[in-house]
Every structure is written in structure tokens, then in C-alpha cells.
DNA sequence: GCGCGTCTGGGACACTTGTCCAACTTCGGG
DNA sequence: CCCGAAGTTGGACAAGTGTCCCAGACGCGC
């Protein structure tokens, strides 16, 4: 097994640990235990723990992107329906993997505090915003509408809402309240769609 | 100095440390150093570190409440203006004390991972939602309007938006983008206000 | 003055952490 | 066959952690 293979295996194991027990529990020993490797392998495959966490963040962002794009089901023709379905699909994703979603936030904030990783969050959110913009643009052609405000700005608002909904749900696990918030957000966003 | 006084002093010192260096840096030694106490005083004043963090969370929530209510300036008569002013006031608060705001998120997520504190976040967010509802209701009488959707639901959406805006700004520190998001959110929320 | 409960604080304990190292195995090309 | 590079691994280290303890100081009612 090459050093490069070990590195990606360790990153995956680290994500599993962070998902299950949080960032503060992702010690080198916990990670190698999850990957079923001896401790010595760690610093042979990766220079430092922070370096590995950088890989983990990129792993999370990639996964998040897949989930977001997968939620785009073209069943709805009504823009209102499309918005609600997409937001609900995201909420379902959060409820299915709460640890993963929390890990995302923990990693972002850990990175912000670490001098060697504090450039990551900006990149991470740029990726999210670009992703949301992509989905919104796809929705334009797909639904035969156009957004009456710049897609980039709307994308940021959408990410704002998904982040906020996720945070509140993680805190109180109130499914019904989260769904009502999504309904309300849908009603608030729908007016930005005009028929092309 | 009584044990109770020591405890609140330690909570304040802990918040200072979390604000400056993050939750993971808030060790017992760092906290007593900030409070200028000997290490032995710590476990005389408070049973455990987690117990103190519980105090810190309540401290943060209280501070947050003061900030939210302080932002409610009755200059605007237009509901649209009132919404934008309030959201902008919150953003200003975040920009003035970014560490404090990040500490809030870090504490919430730390609490979620800790078996002895995992009841805190629900309470914390219930307080936020109640606070937002309070502000919204005050706005009704103050502006002579009424909200066309239940205040409790609108309150949750408002907290969702402030949380989301804060997270994104902490990540990329893009002032202009955050303000555009607030403008857009204002446009999205304004239609929920009807003249009473 | 005295005794006792409250407070003080320095030191220690057991444990975990990230990182490193030196010895060991494996294996492909000359 | 052999040798050197790549891979492997158990153990060690220094630093840092939460928590505890005990000898002492203080202050106040009797």
C-alpha cells in the first residue's frame, strides 16, 4: 500500500471519526484505529494532523456537492414546488446524516481558528455558493423561468437559509418546525422567479 | 472572595478565552490565567470544566439578547426599512465581535457532542426564537403593521437568516456580499408585513 | 484569645496528545 | 543473489490535560 493510498484512507477514516465523535475526538490514534493501521503509519503517510484535516474538508465539500445536485429532481414545474422540494431534500439529507453535517460546521470553525488552515473556509463557502448558483441556473432553463435578481446573490441567500435551517435543526431536532421554516422560506423566495 | 463570585469571574474569563482563542483553547489553566487565579481555585469554585461551560453558554445567550434588543431603533416607519436596519445592526454586531459570534457556534456544537451538555442547544435556540418573536411583535405595534404569517414561524426564519449570514461572513469576511444578502433577505421578508 | 469553617494555592497524579525515531520487513532491478 | 529504496511498526518522548489533595491562611462568632 503506497503512501498516497494510505493518505486517502486516513482522510476517509478521519471523516468517519469526526462524523461519529466530533473534531476534538479526531486524534491521530483514533484515526489510525478507525483505519486499522498502526500509529506509525500516520506520519509516514501525512506530515501532520492539520494537513490531513485539510484533506477531510475537501472530502466533505465534495460529498456535499454530490448531495446538493442529487436533490435536483425535475418533477416539479411550479417554481414554488421546485424550491420547496430542493430545500426539503437538503433537510432530509441533514436528518439522514446529522453527524456529517455537524462535522462540516465543526471543521469550518476549527479551520478558522487554526493559522495553517484559516484560508480553507473562504474557499469552502465559495464552492458552496458556486454550487447553489449552478443549481439555480439549471432551474432557470429546466422550469422555463428567470430569476429577477442576480443568481450569485440569490445563491448566497439560499446557502444562508440551508445553513441556518441546519443549525437550528441540529440544536433542537424539531422536524415540524424545520419544515415550517422551509415552507416560509419557499414563500419568501418564490416571488424572485418570473416566467421567461 | 466567595466561591460564587469566583464562579462568575471564571465564567467571564472563560468567555474571554473562547472569544480570543476558541473552545479548544479554553483549558482550566488558560481560564484561571485569564482570571488571574491559581489553578487550585478552579475546582474549588466549580465542580468541573463542563459545568463552567454551561455557565458560559448562558452568559453568551444573555449578551446576544441584549445586542438584539439594542438594535431595535425606532427610526424607520417603513417595515422594509425596519427589517434591513435590524439585520444590518446584527451584522455590525458580528463584525465588531467576530470571535464572540464564532464562540457561540463553537459552544453550541461542543455542547451537542458532550453528553452532559447536549440539552443546552435546544434551550439556547428556544431563547433565540423567543427573542426574535419578541422583536417582531414589538415591531407590529411600533410600525402599525401586522405579520401575515405566525410570528413564531417568522421568528424562526429570521434566526435562520441571521445565523446563515453570520456563518458565511465568518468564513469569507465579505462585507459587501453579506450586505447584498441582507438586502435580498429584506426584499424576501417585507411582503409578510401588512398594514394593520 | 480561640476554634472552626471558609477560602487559598502550590504541587502532584494519571492520562492523553502530536510527533518522531530506529529497527524491521518487503520487493524489484541489476 | 543482493542491495537499496520503499514501506511498516512498536515504542518512546515531551508537552499538555482535567482533576484532586493537603498544608496553610484568613476571618468571625464565642
UniProtKB/TrEMBL annotation, chains A, B:
Report keywords, A-Z: DNA-binding, Repressor, Transcription, Transcription regulation
Q: Return the PANTHER family for the record.
A: HTH-TYPE TRANSCRIPTIONAL REGULATOR PKSA (PTHR30055:SF226), HTH-TYPE TRANSCRIPTIONAL REGULATOR RUTR (PTHR30055)
SUPFAM superfamilies xrefs: Homeodomain-like, Tetracyclin repressor-like, C-terminal domain
This one is known as HTH tetR-type domain-containing protein
Which PROSITE patterns does this chain map to? HTH_TETR_2 (PS50977)
- Write down the superkingdom of origin: Bacteria
Q: Which residues bind DNA?
A: 27-46
Q: Where does the HTH tetR-type domain start and stop, copy by copy? A: 4-64
Q: Which species is the source of this protein?
A: Homoserinibacter gongjuensis
Q: Kindly give the Pfam families that the UniProt entry links to this protein.
A: TetR_C_6
